[in-house]
Specification:
Layout: H1 7-12, H2 39-48, E1 59-65, H3 71-83, E2 106-108, E3 123-127, H4 141-149, E4 183-189, H5 197-213, E5 217-222, H6 224-227, H7 229-233, H8 242-255, E6 262-264, H9 276-298
Parallel strand pairs: 1-3, 1-4, 4-5, 5-6
Antiparallel strand pairs: 2-3
Helix pairs in contact: 2-9, 4-5
Length: 300
């Protein structure tokens, strides 16, 4: 029998078409450029950064997002990258759930090396309870707004039913510039099918409050290896992946954060040693985080 590619076959059977190969899941060229393997430069940048405002010792980054999106794991991953070893400063759950594992307002500092006196990197992360769909579930949006202003004390236990009040021991009536949030970061999982409208409504209120305070906003997309087979095979496909670009564009439209403020990252999950490509994505996001926070501090 003549092969389907043979000219005579095509002449005899003009209506029979070759099956076309499926479209590639990746772009031929990355849509965003990143310097893979050039980690020492970004690591040095973070190590040497120091706020010029004497009232601010460090950039304070507040993480918020859906329960189970990887907020605590992101903090641990940043700590791994900066400390150059595995570490777990933030308690994280290995079980994906729509219920938040974090229940208290916690500040995570990242220590520089060993010895005394203890020294820390000039960036701290505040972990909070996750957003949930129900009206009386998850972190109360008003608590996030109070945290941005620096009114939430360390260790305050979130109450999904009612927001923190001025009479509560967890309320800080006189926050310093150091207590205030300098960068607000939304954490979303690339596995998230869609963000339900009740959660989007909460997010809009939070973003509008941050806008009114002038706080810069970013988004981290986690679990990119779990959501995309091409990225799982090779993390350097992250900016070639059609799926991830579509997911980022969708999140940008839904939440309202511009694409150039959205960064896909892979949290350390099953690794026991550091990985250069994982570090590259985290350091790239971290450098922009510091730049945005520094710009805000300059205006304080």
């Amino acid at each position: 029998m003549l092969p389907s590619r043979h000219p005579l076959f095509k002449a005899l059977f003009p209506h029979v078409h070759e099956s076309e190969p499926p479209p590639s899941p990746t772009l031929s060229e990355p849509w965003r450029q990143i310097s893979w393997g050039d980690n020492e430069r970004d690591l040095q940048y973070v190590q040497e950064y120091k706020p010029e405002n004497e009232e601010v010792k460090h950039i304070r980054v507040l993480l918020y997002g859906l329960a189970g999106s990887g907020k605590s794991s992101f903090i641990n991953s940043v700590s791994n990258v900066l400390r150059r070893r595995m570490s777990i400063p933030a308690a994280a759950s290995a079980i994906t759930s729509d219920k938040s594992f974090t229940t208290k307002y916690e500040t995570h500092e990242i220590r520089k090396g060993r010895g005394n006196p203890k020294t820390f990197y000039p960036i701290v992360f505040n972990d909070i309870m996750g957003l949930e769909e129900g009206k009386n579930c998850g972190v109360h949006p008003e608590d996030i707004k109070l945290a941005m202003k620096g009114h939430v004390r360390e260790g305050y236990k979130f109450n999904p039913v009612s927001a923190l009040s001025g009479s509560d021991p967890g309320y800080n009536p006189s926050p310093s510039p150091d207590d205030q949030v300098h960068v607000l970061v939304c954490i979303l999982s690339a596995n998230t099918a869609e963000i339900k409208e009740p959660v989007l409504e909460k997010m809009r209120g939070i973003r509008e409050a941050a806008r009114d305070l002038g706080i810069p906003q970013m988004m981290m997309i986690t679990k990119i290896d779990e959501a995309c087979a091409e990225t799982d095979k090779n993390l350097r496909n992250v900016y070639k992946s059609k799926y991830l670009k579509k997911k980022m564009t969708g999140f940008s439209s839904a939440v309202g954060i511009p694409m150039n403020c959205i960064f896909p990252v892979k949290n350390y999950r099953d690794e026991i040693d550091l990985n250069d490509d994982v570090d590259t994505l985290i350091l790239s996001a971290l450098r922009h985080m510091i730049n945005f926070g520094d710009d805000f501090i300059d205006k304080m």
